[in-house]
Amino acid sequence: MKMCRLCEEMKELWKEQQLLAEFGKGFRFIHMSDSKETIPFMLQIPKRTTPFTALVNGHSTPYFSLENIDEESCIAQLSLLQPVDLKGDPALIDQDLYSLKKTSHSIFVKICSFSSIIPLSHELVGRTLPIIESKS
Predict the structure, then answer these.
(1) pLDDT band for position 59 (50/70/90)?
(2) pLDDT for residue 123 is more than 90
(3) Which of 16, 30, 70, 78 is the most exposed place for a label (fewest CB within 10 A)?
(4) What letter would DSSP give residue 1?
């Protein structure tokens, strides 16, 4: 079976994500948060201007992380990442995105059904919300 180019890219993302997961382990004085082992991304559907989305907690999300990939069939298990705003509420528009929250929801997709992957900064995942004090 011929592999699609995007499948090769996802396998490379998987390798890099595994490297991130291993980096920082075993250090005595350096602590890296668990979120650094996740590389968030969006998937583009051929001939569409908007990215692929899935539902999580009643809201749609175009943000995913790769949990596993079957290299033979190129079927990937993706975890859904919930976008949140500065207040910790679901971000309903891209401009409100401050952080990506890991969820326990996942989907399986055939990677070759998509046209491209849009990687995002791993620092978005689990980003600590700012403390906003009230003016009362």
Answers:
(1) confident
(2) no
(3) 30
(4) -
Of 54, 39, 48, nearest in space to 9 by CA:
39
CA angle, corner 50, sides to 49 and 51, nearest 5?
A: 125
Contact in structure between 75 and 109 (CB atoms under 8 Å): yes
Query: Could you identify the residue written with the tokens 């990939």?
Result: 69
User: 65 with 105: CB under 8 angstroms?
Assistant: no
Indicate whether 86 pLDDT > 70.
Answer: yes
Q: Pick the more confident residue, 106 or 18.
A: 106
Query: What is the pTM (predicted TM-score) of this model?
Result: 0.83
Q: Cβ distance 77 to 67 under 8 Å?
A: yes
The residues near 45 (Cβ < 8 Å, ≥ 6 apart) are 51, 52, 113, 114, 115
C-alpha separations of 107 from 24, 31, 84, 131 in Å: 29, 31, 20, 33
- Token match 């051929």: residue? 46
Q: How far apart are CA 38 and CA 81, in angstroms?
A: 10
